[in-house]
Design goal:
SAM-dependent_MTases_sf, alpha/beta, S-adenosylmethionine-dependent methyltransferase activity, about 25% helix, single chain, globular, Methyltransf_11, seven-stranded mixed beta sheet, Methyltransferase type 11 domain-containing protein, Rossmann fold
């Protein structure tokens, strides 16, 4: 398995249109996100990366949405995603639409998202699936010109392992868009073979376990042994 952190510098695409059939991917991702956006409430939604900024999140109840990126439009905050300029536990939800695919250190990026998220905050990840038709074409020795084949692709299980180490509860994970060259992506195949989808979606929530126990709750949790009726104490003389 290749290490997650690599010294290589990636040039992330500024728009979905830079992908071959990129608009198909964006529309398919927005359809998958709509039911989850309707469940997310709070004050601040952080869209990390240029591709995240172009995702239509009007169905989300969070009105204050901030786009963060090093360059490109429509970035509102110019910053390195690996060093987010926000306080700890100040954001209700983070959207990383294919952001890990262009990150040299995905562990660091997930740690930054975990730092700025409030307790029970939402983390949404998407990316390309290496175990798909798209992933198989990337594995071929033929060099492709599309930006898709220059991106990093991580398996679903690997990403779930990263989230479990950060104590995230994964509430949903799936694949979709099995046929990358069609707008619908193959509805029947996506329904019956979602694991082969060329795109992946993970929805998780940040869970925090207190390091110190509440003494009142701890005392209530202790099982008390009832005193036997009519029992007397006996003392043995020394």
């Amino acid at each position: 398995m290749k290490p997650a952190r690599i010294p290589r510098t990636f040039s992330a695409p500024a728009h979905w249109a830079e992908f071959s059939r990129g608009e198909y991917y964006r529309e398919a991702l927005e359809q998958q996100l709509k039911p989850w956006f309707a469940k997310i409430y709070g004050f601040h939604l952080l869209k990390i990366g240029n591709l995240s900024a172009e995702i239509n999140a009007e169905s989300c109840a969070i009105s204050h949405q901030v786009n963060v990126s090093l360059q490109g439009e429509p970035a509102q905050v110019r910053a390195d995603p690996l060093h987010l300029p926000f306080e700890n536990k100040s954001v209700d939800a983070c959207l990383l639409a294919h952001t890990l695919s262009w990150c040299p250190d995905p562990h660091r990026l997930l740690n930054e998202a975990d730092r700025v998220l409030i307790d029970d905050g939402w983390l949404i990840l998407s990316g390309f699936n290496p175990v798909s038709l798209l992933g198989l074409r990337k594995a071929l020795p033929i060099r492709r010109q599309s930006a898709v084949y220059r991106s990093r692709m991580f398996t679903m299980m690997r990403q779930l392992d990263w989230l479990s180490l950060l104590n995230f509860e994964v509430v949903h994970h799936s694949g979709f868009q099995v046929l990358p060259w069609t707008r619908q992506g193959g509805k029947v195949l996506t329904t019956h073979l979602p694991a082969l989808g060329c795109m992946q979606l993970i929805v998780a929530r940040k869970r925090t376990i207190p390091l110190t126990l509440n003494p009142m709750k701890q005392s209530k949790a202790k099982a008390r042994v009832p005193q036997a009726v009519g029992a007397t104490r006996q003392y043995r003389k020394p």
